[in-house]
Amino acid sequence: MIDDEADRRALPGNGLPAERVLAEVRALRSADRPTHGGRLFAYVYDPAVPGLDELAAAAYAGSAHVNGLDPTAFPSLLAMENALVGAAARLLGGGPGSAAPDVVGSVTSGGTESLILAVKAARDAHPEIAAPRIVVPASAHAAFAKAAHYLRVAVDTVPVSASTLRPAAADVAAAIGPDTVLVACSAPSYAHGVVDPVAEIAEAAATAGVRCHVDACFGGWTLPYLRRLGADVPPFDFVVAGVTSISVDLHKYAYAPKGVSVLLHRDAALRAPQYFAYADWPGYTMVNPVIASTRSGGPIAAAYATLRHLGDDGYLRLAAATRDAVAGLADAVRAADGLRLMAEPESTVVCFTATDAGLDLFVLVDELAARGWHTQPQLSYADLPPSVHLTVTAAVAPRVAEFGPDLAAAVAATRAAGPVALPAELLTLATTLTPDALTPDLVAGLAAGLGLTGPAPAADSAGAEEAADPADPAVSGDGAGTAGPPPGRMAVVNTLLDAAPPALRERLLVEFVGLLQRPTW
Ligand SMILES: Cc1ncc(COP(=O)(O)O)c(C=O)c1O
Questions:
Q1: Distance of CA 231 to the CA centre of its chain
Q2: Residue 86 in contact with residue 246, Cβ under 8 Å?
Q3: Which residues contact 307 (CB under 8 A, 6 or more apart)?
Q4: Neighbouring C-beta atoms of residue 208, cutoff 10 Å
Q5: Which of 167-171, 271-275, 393-397, 516-520 has the lowest mean pLDDT?
């Protein structure tokens, strides 16, 4: 245990025994959401395969100090990286004997890096375009916006239908202009788990002579297996002629530890502008396929071990278990009073919304958390209502029978608690404030008022008070989920964020997370 002030420092005056340090890490970890056990529906992908964690950890440890900076110095990494790229390419319609025999790729640190590099390659393939643009469905992952922001590329957003949750290929085609360097689509989208009309979108892109990236980061490893199990999965990979690149995250449904995604290109010429090389300085000549220069071999070795151990048959079994879990969870949602599915599940997501205003989804998320189910709230967007997202993994399968009764009880408790009532002044603030008007004092006051940093929140929600565990703020990825307010306060925070327009949401999130990220001295 961490027992005194000075001992909390990462750099104590005197080094501590290994056992003691590990005990500290374990103690810190005990505050986290449960990464195993099939009750966490975001962030962590758990196949519940005995021994897999230990295997991956051993492989990770054995290569943790190996540096991917120079593939000639550490051929082990190059070999494992090439093997991972080959496996991903084969799974996604490429490789020898396929319609895309020349597929090449790189291992990146995650989906976001893969998407940034897909955008970079597309941008740098056209140095003659002064103000490059990308066409992106509104349902595509936020990492495209991040890529555009980092790379100074403009985004043309194509709306999605409120009923199908997909973009219309005709709208994508209409958005392509002379400065478009890339068209993106998802297979499937994270928020709702639906597969975009990839064939039509890729055809529109090809007709315009533009690259088409399929973001299969989330579900690219499961869709082929679901198809083999009989699901009606439309063509989404290199089988589609106009698809020029695909990303697939191994740290998601390939069940590898964090830090591994694969970015594939149909051929080496398409990949070439992804690289950065530099020889105009007195140090070592540098050539980087990815954003990082020094790269640990740990994640790559762990992913390699995971794929080798699970094998094709293992992934097929895990996909079947996941499919059954999805079906069971969707049935529970259908049976609940006042919930409806946002879309019929077609991959590994169950996403639902409320059918009446008496059922506050943000309170429901807290009520589910109080019962040990960690779901992910999604804020309202354009004409889409707020929703609750469940990323379903194979580990959920044995838990499905417990979910229905808990969901019903959580719904009843949510109705009894009633919707969150934000104080009028907070609501006015959320709807009228411009991001630039946020002062540090205002942010600190808001954070304290919401219970993020200080005293109890002013708003009233019985459901929130009963909750025993914090649920996610409606942000995905790192950040606000890493530390946070006291148990059960998130309905209030999410209600405030939901009332605000996206630009203010973004600014509030940055400020709130900034308050959490303070050094310990
Ligand atoms: C479809 C999709 N693309 C990209 C990403 C970004 O991946 P990462 O969090 O590994 O950067 C995600 C993450 O959930 C995703 O679902």
A1: 23
A2: no
A3: 84, 87, 250, 254, 256
A4: 17
A5: 516-520
Q: How many residues are given for the chain? A: 521
Which residues 6+ apart lie within 8 Å of 483 measured at CB? 516
Cα(217) to ligand 1 centroid in Å equals: 6
Place of tokens 């973001």: 215
Q: Let me know: does 372 contact 467? Beta carbons within 8 Å.
A: no
> 54 and 67 in contact (C-beta within 8 Å)?
no
Confidence of residue 477 (pLDDT cuts 50, 70, 90): very low
| Mean pLDDT along residues 477-482 | 34
Mean pLDDT of 441-449: 84
Q: Is 144 in the pocket of ligand 1 (CB under 6 A)?
A: no
> Measured in angstroms, how far is the CA atom of residue 36 from the centroid of ligand 1?
20
Tell me how far CA of residue 151 lies from CA of 104, 143, 361, in angstroms: 23, 12, 36
Angle between helices 502-516 and 490-499 (to 10 degrees): 140
Atom of ligand 1 nearest to the CA of 188: 1
Residue 440 has a pLDDT of: 84
150-208 pLDDT per residue, tens? 999 999 999 999 999 999 999 999 999 999 999 999 999 999 999 999 999 999 999 99
162 against 483, higher pLDDT:
162
Q: Which residue has the tokens 């994508």?
A: 172
Please tell me the distance from the alpha carbon of residue 47 to that of residue 8, in angstroms, as a whole number: 34
95 pLDDT higher than 80: yes
Ligand 1 pocket test, candidate residues 107, 192, 217, 247, most atoms within 8 A of CB: 217
CA distance 243 to 417: 49
Q: What is d(CA 402, CA 235) in angstroms, rounded to the nearest whole number?
A: 35
- CA dihedral (231, 235, 238, 243) positive or negative: negative
263, 114 Cβ separation under 8 angstroms: yes
Report which DSSP code applies to 436: G
At 238, list the tokens: 């290199």
pTM over 0.70: yes
Ligand 1 pocket, 218 CB below 6 A?
A: yes
Q: Please state the separation of Cα 48 from the chain's center in Å.
A: 20
Contact, 118 vs 263, CB < 8 A?
yes
Encoding tokens for residue 483? 């530390």
* Pairwise CA distance, residues 131 & 146, whole Å: 17
Convert the pLDDT of each residue in 251-264 to its tens digit. Answer: 999 999 999 999 99
Longest CA span, the chain = 69
Extended beta strands in 305-370, E state: 339-341, 349-354
Give the Cα separation of 413 and 204 in Å (integer).
49
